[in-house]
Amino acid sequence: MNNRQARLFAVAATGLSALLFLGLTLDSHRQFPELTNAQDITPQVRHGMDVWHKYNCINCHTLFGEGAYYAPDLTKITQHRGEPYLKAYMRDPSRFYNEQTHRRLMPRQDLAEDEISDLIAFLDWVSKVDNQGWPPRPILVTGSFAPGAATLAAAGSSGQTPTGARPVDAGDDPRALGEQLFKTATPACNACHSTVPGADMAGPSLAGIGTRAAQTVASPDYHGKAKDAGGYIRESILSPSAHIVPGEMYSADGTSFMPTGYGQSLSDEQVGQLVAFLETLK
Amino acid sequence: MRYQSQSVAYWYFAVAMVLFGLQLVFGLLSATKYIGPDPLLYILPFDVTKVIHTNLLIVWVLTGFMGATYWMIPEESRTELHSTRLAYIQLGLWTLMGVTAIIGYLFRYGTGNKLLEQPLPHKIVIVICMLIFLYNVGMTIRKARRFTTTEAVLMIGFVSAALLYLPALLHYENYTVSIFYRWWTIHLWVEGVWMMIMGGFLAYLLIRLSGADREVMEKWLYVIVGLVFIAGILGTAHHYYWVGVPSYWLPIGGLFSALEPLALVGMAAYAYGAIRRSGLAHPNTLALHWTIGSAVFSLFGAGLLGLAHTWPSVNKWTHGTLITAMHGHAAFYGAYAMIVLAMISYALPSLTGGRREQGSTLGYWAFWLQISGMFGMTLSFATAGIAQVYLERIMGMGYLDAQLKIQIHFVMLIATASLFTVGVALFIYDFFRHAPRLVVDEPASAPAPVRSA
Prior knowledge:
The complex is a heterodimer of chains A (about 280) and B (about 450). Chain A is built from twelve helices and four strands. Chain A starts with a helix and ends with a helix. Helices cover about 50% and strands about 5% of the residues of chain A. Chain A folds into two domains: about 35-125, Cytochrome Bc1 Complex, Chain D, domain 2 (Orthogonal Bundle); about 150-280, Cytochrome Bc1 Complex, Chain D, domain 2, CATH 1.10.760. In chain A, the strands form two sheets. In chain A, strands 1-2 form a two-stranded antiparallel sheet. Chain B has a domain at about 1-145. Chain B is built from 14 helices and no strands. Chain B has helices spanning about 10-30, 45-75, 85-105, 120-145, 150-165, 175-210, 215-235, 250-275, 285-310, 310-320, 320-350, 360-395, 400-405, 405-430. In chain B, helix 6 (about 175-210) packs parallel to helix 8 (about 250-275). Chains A and B meet through helix 1, helix 2, strand 1, strand 2 and helix 5 of A and helix 2, helix 6, helix 7, helix 8 and helix 11 of B.
């Protein structure tokens, strides 16, 4: 190869690559509106993006996995945490996490109320962008080590059975199906609740919920409509604010932080399976 | 020094040195926050120290690039610079931009857009500085009527760098589109045109240090440039994983970024071959260490560590973890920090008095301490990142809990980063301990016949 041929190679390689790249860029623009649900970019979402930029969020957190790796990924956060929780969290993170325990804490940002709600609208838009199904398994903010939790979740969606996880199918005991739902419902219950005694996460630990539910229903402070433990658990899943256990970690102004969409996303039978599973936690 | 105007390079290098030192201060501060709790939570939180750390990197490396170019162009074109005054005005503006941007970040005055945090006025000043620079260098080459291939590669690199900054000036209402164009600037800089600039400096240094034949060196420089762009342009796709773009970017990203090490293998082989084959050895062996070191370390950091997590089916699990920080640190240091330090080490004996051409003992300590420190930092990020991927992404442990389990790797990070910092401190001390002596001591040779690229 002489100098002239080498130069021709450099120019041709660069030219062809650039041409292909520009062509694909044009085609990407054609597809952006559909992939990103561009029609849902409302003024709130736009303002939420400005808030995201204004508070320099990306230099601690990641979004679509891009950012600074010092704080949790927020791509799917609105699918893991309900709006009341996120609002209360944004007002004062130190009420939810202890810097001594986790060795790091998000500084209070003093956002205006409309900034908070628009930021949540933006994050909700982000969570619905078609990004090839990433992350492949939910990335949790906190949670104790629970063997098989995510592997079971993956088995449910992909049909592959990872080693060590027993497959669960429709003919199984409702309680086994409920245990799987606990990890696979959207939002996944185990994103906020552990079943380990004392391991409270964004939601309280559900260890012993079967026993506590029976006590709650029987107590004179209970104002909901349930008649027995199973009924109380069902009510808590479908309308979390019907009866609120006092304490500022999990509710504010009479509204529970728990997401309210399970009535729509789960069938009546599935709720029954979840209740059956939870009642076993004595 | 052969041309009086080469002396502007000294002041560019001096500014680069100060900013490099400052970058490490903010890097170390950021690293300690991984251990926590953070006493500076409300004074200097992580997002501020991190944004200053990365921005200082970009500013000092570019300052070094521009200084090195002002050093190299007169020698290559065999003439004085078009205007030293313009070069100083540019340096003043540039430094003012850098310093005010850093002060602004302390008060959260920035765009909050990853790596493009510079506020609009600062971005405009960056463009103005680049234009002054291109004009000044372009006029010098035009006046000399001598334009070598090495210069051509370098100049095309700088012109493209300026052009690719333009998408960063626009505002996008769709976050995914904004990500799409962020990488036009950042990726195509780092893995495209900056590589070209690095290749230009590498060729210059190898020709000077090894006495390798210019014809041969320039021929291979073309081949490397071709390889850089085949892999680099379409390799942008590896930043388009999981961000809301069409799926065809996944296989394209996998395929073309897997080719990226090819160009880097080419560069390393190029450097090694040049040194082995040539009979003539330049006395400045310290600069030679940095030059070969840069070629080898970028093969490791940019090439191999990039390849380690670039395939989509791997990246699906490692995306957005400390694995990226591992690759980022080794790649930037090997490819860009080291090539600037090589140019400085090469030029320094002629820019200051009382210095041995071979380089000082201190200079060698600086080299080896930095190399070992950065290697250790890379391993710390790697082990932390691997543990994070398994605990958090595969086992399903929560982010905060997984981070607690990998604390020991952050201790290692700080230990090795301290070693690295000592190496950098020695380099900076060695730079400033001799006063500048900016006189022509090696008269320019008789005008050579004009030769075009």
